[in-house]
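Thread title: Can someone regenerate the structure for this chain?

I was given the following input by a collaborator and told the matching C-alpha cells would be attached. They weren't. Posting the sequence so someone can regenerate them.
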Amino acid sequence: MNAPVKGPASYFPSIEKKYGRPIAEWQELIRSSPLTRHMELVAWLKSEYGLGHGHANALVAHNLAENKDS
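Best answer:
Regenerated them for you:
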C-alpha cells in the first residue's frame, strides 16, 4: 500500500491539471531563473505564469529543498 504524498509534492497533481505543464517543466523553469530567493521565485511564477500563491509556493519549496539536499 502506498503512503499518501505529503508536503509540497501533494500539490503536484492539481498543478499539472490546472496549468497543463508537467512538474519537471516547472522545476526546470525555476532552476533556470536567475532568481534564488524563495519569495522572489514565488512572485515571479505568479506574475509570469499566473500560478496561484499556494501552487507557486509548493513548486519553489520543493525545488529549493531538492537543491539543498544535492
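Residues 16 and 23 are 7 Å apart (CA to CA).
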